[in-house]
């Protein structure tokens, strides 16, 4: 099994590290490949889309032709884990801010996001939240994070911070407003790997 980590910008190394650690813990022998160009994703079993800056991320994915490959992978129900800017790039709608910048969103997840809801870089914070598939709280790191303001009927809310939706799941796609790759808690990456295993199994 091979997992593609989109390596255009953002916390690429951190996701690769977390995936490798999670694999070791689960005694899995999968490959993780950083992907910058088209032609690799069709041969992968799952995709991880890190955070960063979603306008740039979307523009470069389109330029590289990776956008179409991710859309195709989603159609084939391949598991996708998208965090922060990654989550934004998968959304159907990015509200006014995305319209203003004519952001090229992939439109894979039936959600609307509101970018930069929780303030600027300096307002970053870490807070324990409940995630539906975990038994105990998870320390979520928020950095210029979006929130999800609308979910379609096939989308399940999996995490909230107060009233705000900060995690959603649509079939095999998990979108998170926070950064699981920046903590030592591997449970989200482990859960994701389990989805990949079940899907290829
Ligand atoms: N604020 C960024 C955006 O809108 C996302 C921040 C992040 O990925 N940490 O694209």
Automatic annotation (TrEMBL):
Q: In which pathway does it act?
A: Cofactor biosynthesis; pyridoxal 5'-phosphate biosynthesis
InterPro entries registered for this protein in UniProt: Class_I_gatase-like, PdxT/SNO, PdxT/SNO_CS
Instruction: Name the catalysed reactions.
Output: L-glutamine + H2O = L-glutamate + NH4(+); aldehydo-D-ribose 5-phosphate + D-glyceraldehyde 3-phosphate + L-glutamine = pyridoxal 5'-phosphate + L-glutamate + phosphate + 3 H2O + H(+)
Keywords from the named record: Glutamine amidotransferase, Hydrolase, Lyase, Pyridoxal phosphate
Record-annotated residues binding L-glutamine? Answer: 52-54, 115, 143-144
The Enzyme Commission number assigned here is 4.3.3.6, 3.5.1.2
* Gene Ontology annotations of biological process type: L-glutamine catabolic process; pyridoxal phosphate biosynthetic process; pyridoxine metabolic process
Stored Pfam families: SNO
The UniProt entry annotates the active site at: 84 (nucleophile), 179 (charge relay system), 181 (charge relay system)
MF-aspect GO terms: glutaminase activity; pyridoxal 5'-phosphate synthase (glutamine hydrolysing) activity
GO cellular component terms? cytosol; glutaminase complex
Protein family according to the UniProt entry: Belongs to the glutaminase PdxT/SNO family.
Q: List, alphabetically, the PANTHER family matched.
A: PYRIDOXAL 5'-PHOSPHATE SYNTHASE SUBUNIT SNO (PTHR31559), PYRIDOXAL 5'-PHOSPHATE SYNTHASE SUBUNIT SNO1-RELATED (PTHR31559:SF0)
This protein's assembly is summarised as: In the presence of PdxS, forms a dodecamer of heterodimers. Only shows activity in the heterodimer.
Q: State its role.
A: Catalyzes the hydrolysis of glutamine to glutamate and ammonia as part of the biosynthesis of pyridoxal 5'-phosphate. The resulting ammonia molecule is channeled to the active site of PdxS.
Its protein name is: Pyridoxal 5'-phosphate synthase subunit PdxT
